[in-house]
Specification:
By secondary structure, this protein is an alpha/beta fold. The chain contains eight helices and nine strands. The strands form three sheets. Strands 5-6-7-8-9 form a five-stranded parallel β-sheet. Helix 1 runs parallel beside helix 3 and helix 3 runs parallel beside helix 4. It binds flavin mononucleotide (FMN).
Length: 249
């Protein structure tokens, strides 16, 4: 079965299957009724996660995955109610959020975005205006948090000078959004500075967590950190995921 996407555009990236890393295949464009049904499936997934014991829900609208493909004009070439204008491209994300809000407390729902990232072969011609609309609408719904990846995911933080992250964070909060989580390339000192300067309420760590099973303890005690091994990122096995050592002095 072909993967599903807003438009029939094959991404220039690789993915894992049983043969290892392979080129991704061409997707099929979703029909309108399928998009509506997908939004409802997010609500079902939320209830499943709640049953499984999760404390909160983060809607993943980042990094070139399905919702992000609807948001950005490199991957969304539709000419119906889900494509074209910024409002139309943001429709799927907002319908997903609204379906979830019907079944789950909004103060336990967050959303992750990556406005400047081209990860997974994605891009947009006018990210500031696109994401200003997106974060304003998320703010109006009073989400628990906006999780914002600054720059290129896992790469330079100043990858795209067209995006003003401070402005996006402000818009989210002035419209009723609760908290900002920021991410990408932070160490302890940078994270503390971001909190002190009111640039974020929380800071998320990616590969430092991957490489340090006891990251919180190490940061609290200023213990040295294990260095992440990029060669085992996305490796397809347990190697590089569960075999980094705990700190011992
Ligand atoms: C091996 C690996 C797997 C990742 N998988 C995901 C993922 O599935 N979804 C996602 O949104 N980000 C994923 N990321 C990106 C991280 O969430 C994070 O945004 C990125 O590593 C930048 O943060 P950092 O500088 O603290 O590592 C992954 C990163 C790594 C290194």
């Amino acid at each position: 079965m072909a993967p599903q996407a807003p438009s029939v555009i094959r991404a220039n990236v690789k993915t894992f299957n049983s043969k290892g890393l392979v080129d991704v295949s061409e997707p099929k464009a979703l029909e309108i009724h399928e998009i509506k049904s997908l939004a409802q499936q997010y609500a079902k997934a939320t209830l499943n996660a709640q049953k499984a014991g999760f404390d909160m829900i983060e809607v993943h609208a980042a990094n070139g995955y399905l919702i992000d493909q609807f948001l950005r004009d490199k991957t969304n070439h539709r000419d119906d109610m889900y494509g074209g204008s910024i409002e139309n491209r943001a429709r799927f994300l907002l319908e997903v959020i609204d379906e979830i809000i019907k079944v789950y407390p909004v103060n336990l729902i967050g959303c992750r975005i990556s406005p400047a990232s081209t990860f997974n072969d994605i891009d947009d011609s006018d990210p500031q205006n696109l994401y200003s609309y997106v974060v304003t609408e998320l703010g109006k719904r009073k989400l628990a948090y906006l999780h914002i990846i600054e720059g290129e995911t896992g790469g330079p933080r100043d990858a795209n000078p067209k995006v003003n992250f401070a402005e996006l964070k402000k818009l989210f909060k002035t419209h009723g959004g609760m908290n900002i989580i920021t991410n990408n390339g932070y160490n302890k000192a940078m994270a503390e500075r971001a909190i002190e300067n009111n640039e974020a309420d929380l800071v998320a760590f990616g590969d430092p967590f991957l490489a340090n099973p006891d990251l919180v303890k190490r940061l609290e005690n200023n213990y040295p950190l294990n260095t992440p091994n990029q060669r085992t990122f996305y490796g397809g096995t347990e190697k590089g995921y569960i075999d980094y050592p705990f700190y011992s002095d």
